[in-house]
Amino acid sequence: MQKQNSQQLKKTALESRKIILKMLTEAGNGHPGGSLSAIDIITALYFNEIKHDPKNPKWEGRDYFILGKGHGVPALYATLAQAGYFDVAECMTLRKLGSRMQGHPDRTKLNSLEASTGSLGQGLSIAQGYAMASRLDKKDNRVYCLIGDGESQEGQIWEAAMSITKYKLSNMCVILDENRFQIDGSTQDVMSLEPVMDKWKAFGFNTLEIDGHNMDEILNAFKLAREEKSRPTFIRAHTIKGKGVSFMENNNHWHGVSPTKEELVKALKELDEVKI
Amino acid sequence: MSSKATRASFGEALVELGQEFKNVVVLDADLSKSTKSEGFAKKFPERFFQMGIQEANMIGVAAGMSFTGKVPFLCSFGCFLTGRFDTIRVSVGYSNANVRLVGTHAGVGIGEDGYSQMALEDIACMRTLPGMAVLQPADDVETKQMMRFLMTHQGPVYLRLTRQNLASVNAADYKFQFGRGVQLKDGKDAVVFATGGVVANALEAAINLEKQAKSVAVVNIHTIKPIDKEIIQNWANKVNKFFTIEDHNVLGGLGGAVSEVLSELGKPVKLKRLGVQDVYGESGTPEDLYTKHLLDAPGIAQSLTKLL
Known about the structure:
The structure holds two protein chains of two kinds. Chain A is α/β, with parallel strands linked by helices. Chain A has one domain: Rossmann fold (3-Layer(aba) Sandwich), CATH 3.40.50.970. Helices cover 43% and strands 12% of the residues of chain A. Chain B folds into two domains: 3-167, Thiamin diphosphate (ThDP)-binding fold, Pyr/PP domains (Rossmann fold, 3-Layer(aba) Sandwich), CATH 3.40.50; 182-307, Rossmann fold. Chain B is an alpha/beta fold. Chain B is globular. Chain B contains 13 helices and 14 strands.
């Protein structure tokens, strides 16, 4: 695919934000907050960073993207649709009976998904498996895994962190979508991850810290991760839950509640007024 | 008669298949000496992955590897693997990962280590996952053929193996058929469905009962899921007394599987489930534990006699 520059990526992400909100309103439930916090990172991955072929989802030369925080999947559906894997119209079947757009990712229904996630903490291990198989076959496919900050409370994340560095999987890049909230409140209150950077550093990762909504910073971090040949990379992306819609930003009400039709109109109006 | 633990047969088969199939990979969580994956580890170090004491991560990693076309065998004690049920449920079952979960140290047969190391609910757990095949061989020849079958089968599998040595029950020309029970002995009064480590004991008990003019058939159920409904139905047409026996909790294991089929058949058949009677295991010699739980040949004969 043609790589988009950071200006184009911003436009694509803006369009995805609209699709995310429309599909969530159509579904009547789902997770807007964590989808909007992740969308810039996922957009940068699919429209600039990773090798993939929408016409051939199982192309052996592709890089792999695993969405650990499966509840953020509307962001991935919107991205895949815009990349050409399926029509944007299909996104509007989200969470409906018989739809490939399951509430959380199901790889058996939609072949452009690399993993079925939603039970938190499992995606990173699956990502490690892809990276190890790629190594074994002496291939250069890279593996990207986006995890949540709430998700990082799962023990399996730290099992994987220990294991990924044991195997020196420099073909792996773990991105933390740190939007600072989880269902029951602020991550700080529920179960603090601090000191986040020290932890991943101590496990042996190349650690980077960025603004997860700044395309130039995102692209630069991916570039640095690619250039790191001895260690896996961890990118701490500071994000805003509900980013892009003023009444959703940093308001944890929007973790798992979809906008009503009226709220959607309001949100789309805001997004339509954004100048890029 | 030769006597060998099915974990040992598994270890040998793994080396052979590893030679033949380059997409076989093996993962172990610090128990390769016990699960017998160490032979493969020595022969094919580049395809053996020591995952440390991290069963959940190992399960996820194996799933990821399988999505690229590898056939991962991941090994640990059955209780430790199936104890990570949600990881298996989502990363393997729901994901339809072509993974072979190999759980050794089945049942009270492990002996002295006691309950925390005994797989006693593993069959019940694995059986509830759609698409998950649940296999338990009864001897060396069956284990090896099952292993070969696993190279062509598509979909997740749970393979349950014993620590203790087992006497052979199958002839050398035996042919394993997935999903098909194997009649080891004919009988007129009753039928025993047995699986895994207790099959040889059930056979011995039934042969001994002939001396008391009691005619009991023995069927080896190596595939607990999908269960062989046909053989159950055929026997329900012939006899009205059924027994199941397993080194596993009687809830949800072979006893559960057979009773589910039988109860829907609506035949006037009485079923007695023999095995670990919904209690936790404990330390003791394997022999003492088999005597206590009536899993040895005399114990099985005693249970059968009581109800015949």
